[in-house]
Batch of 2 targets.
Target 1
Amino acid sequence: MLSLKNINKSFTNGKEKNHVLKDIDITIEDGEFVSIMGHSGSGKSTLLNIIGLLDRQFLGEYMLNGIDTHTLDKKSFTNFRNKNVGWVFQNFKLIHNMTVADNVGLPLLYQGKSTREIREIVENTLNKVGILDKANELPKMLSGGQQQRVAIARAIVTNPNILIADEPTGALDSATTVEIMDVFKNLNVMGTTLIIVTHDVLVGGQADRMIKVLDGKIIGTNYEI
Ligand code: ADP
Ligand code: MG
């Protein structure tokens, strides 16, 4: 379970202070599929970076799996992220001169797993997202949807309990969006907590719960609006 209490975040540029997140309270239970929706510039990515443990410069309390994230030093914070969270981005962020299998295996290499272990886990994971046949290709040989499957495989290869995605279908056409959402939803049905930021209501509307953000404030969930 994760809970954010009274989260505030500002960016300062010289004398200008931009108060981006204002008094955010969110609780997400294990296994939920939650979407965070709002206009461009409303603070969705800023909020997601906090939830996904990329950013720890904020005010307020963030508890994840019973740990107060502010109590972790920099190294423990990174380890905690690697253990608990898988990240997927709009533009895939694959390494272009590495094969699909090597991209997906990279987090396992960092964990110090053996080549044989890595090969087996990577094959299973590529199979789960339907692109085992692309294992030895370079990312540039793949379509956008296939590249996003690779990115999802890399995000789940370490078995995190939370999958976080920032506009994961933003670079995909509508048919491919449907396919990628099916991949996400299957992972969620298997137990992974899924948190997706999107401004596409066809994507966000598929979640169990939709959190709406406007100008850095939560203005409601789909239970309320
Ligand atoms: P969204 O993802 O909803 O489009 P963001 O969270 O990216 O919105 O941005 C919200 C606000 O925070 C914007 O005004 C943006 O300019 C500002 N912002 C985001 N990231 C930074 C940063 N690294 N430094 C300074 N300002 C930032
Ligand atoms: Mg954004």
Target 2
Amino acid sequence: MIINFFMPTKVIMSEECIIKHADLMKEYGKKALIVTGANSANNCGALSDITLALQNQGITYDIYDRIRSNPSIASVYDGAAFAREKESEFVIGIGGGSPMDAAKAIALLAVQDLKEEELFLGKYDNLALPIVLIPTTAGTGSEVTPYSILTNDIKQTKTSIQAPLLFPKIAYLDARYTKSLPMTVTINTAIDALSHAIEGMLTIRATYVSNALAIESIERITQCLRSLSPSKVNSENQLSKDIREKLLYGSMLAGVVIAHTGTTAVHSMGYCLTYFKNVDHGRANGLILPSFLRFIAKHDIELAKKVLSAAGVASMDEFEAIFLRLLGDREQITVKEMERFAAIAFQAKNIMNTKVIPTKEDIENIFTRSLQIL
Ligand code: NAP
Ligand code: ZN
């Protein structure tokens, strides 16, 4: 048996965990940079908790709130310049995957002079500002991964900076912050987390440990999916504390899974839908995942059955029905677009990471089955 497991992030999950465990941040410096999106960090209560916690510890802070969904390369260079100007000693990212990923890149670029063409090459000095992350969506697991995923206009897709030095020092998980999530974001992010756990099982890098975490994550998340419904306008007061906590826990576990395994063709294909058609990240994965699992089942039925069993369903049809109910009408693309997306997705690193490696034709077939082709 070979085990190779590395998870250096201190994960603390409880109500009011930031206030209760604020002293942990003291060792990272006296001046923090808080990185957020436009509104949600403030609206969900996380920003006021962290600023109070920092004040209690005698730590001063500046706020950089210019990160938008699917963060651009320009925005993280801008954030890093801000961090240098303010002489920030550590970075706190609050939000969904977008501000958390941006916080990681800012922590790297604040102390390393990397040109844009060097950003994704993986050749970094062992230096970044310490990173503290606070998820306000239950989906990406970025709070426990060494990845920062940015929109890459040169490659016309999303690409990741990957380095162990991007593992956050601390992840504070307080499910109260997910209370304000609109139902659509709750659904899309839950599906993203589910996709991470399932894809982790389908990679060549899956291990006993990653599979154990993946199965626990899939079980927890699929139990919660039954309570989600796109017809509910807002999840506030409709999702119980128990469900919000399970989703956040399942999402964190799935993050630990992909920190070890990486993702598969599902994410590569999803990135095309996000880049070219502006489809939300989690939704994009959810559109692709059922057909991708059918493809796996054709070649490795035992592997697909393990996933179905963890998801608590008896058949591929039952699995797909979960996604049909939650995602509604599928996006339309032309044949030409589909061929272009398949060509781009086929170039991605994670294609080779899959236990059953799809051909370009397989990818075209999966796109065709997953979307409405005009
Ligand atoms: P997001 O882009 O971070 O946020 C989506 C929307 O949700 C934003 O409008 C945001 O508002 C809002 N929001 C966030 N928290 C909220 C809350 N508690 N209440 C109300 N609204 C809230 O979405 P995401 O799905 O979490 O992250 C997607 C990104 O993560 C993608 O770029 C993806 O590539 C990346 N990702 C990274 C990893 C990794 O390992 N690093 C893994 C998977 C995905 P504000 O703009 O106001 O904050
Ligand atoms: Zn994802």
